[in-house]
IS4 family transposase
Amino acid sequence: MHTVLDYDGCLPVFTAITEGSVHEINVAKKLSFPLGSVIVMDRGYVDYKWLCVLDSNRCFFVTRAKTNMAYRIVEDNTEKSAGNTFILADRLITLTAWKASAEYSGEMRMVVYLDNTTGQEYTFIKNNLHWKAQTVADIYKERWHIEVFYKHVKQHLKIKSFVGTSENAVKIQLWTALIAVLLLKFLQQKAGYRWYLSNLVTFIRLNLFVKIGLINWLNNPFYDQKQIIEIGQLKLFDG
């Protein structure tokens, strides 16, 4: 399931369901983005020809560099982030490998960042030459929202296993799950009470056959259960 999340609300604006053998970059190449968009992706989407297309369309990208990326340093700006001990390098580079340089001949920026919690180093590449180095790391950190989205789909909507095994059955279950996520996220945003999505899913499942106003319940889930039961009993014995 190939998905593009819009950062405003972190909801999918595009989804394609393909066979597992279809590489994600083949789907990404078919997409178009509005002018000035910032596309954040993992290393699996590093295709220099496609990155050049994004740059030509005046879209910004932030991704992790491949471990075998060959490059030449044009300018070293690391000292500009001297006050930030987590910025290990901030350089302007060009690709030197024959194929890579032919596909992306322009300059790009490379930032090496040290994660203070794990001690792991991350090397980011991007085509925006003006952002602060810390901003690059912060932007990539927001990519974690897509991992959270898939976690919600798999855990809360039971996509770890499938009811049917045919292609049509699997697609129906996945599309149904996506529709359910959109509805749940909409209810979460509309509710006056601050719900965690996991709690919202659980409580809605428990109250599926309870005749109460949905919006009122979302705003105030801790209603008087005893009063609701008494009202229901009176109606049960009317007439």
User: Anything to note?
Assistant: The chain has a mean pLDDT of 87. The beta strands are 2-6, 11-16, 38-40, 60-64, 71-76, 87-95, 108-114, 121-126.
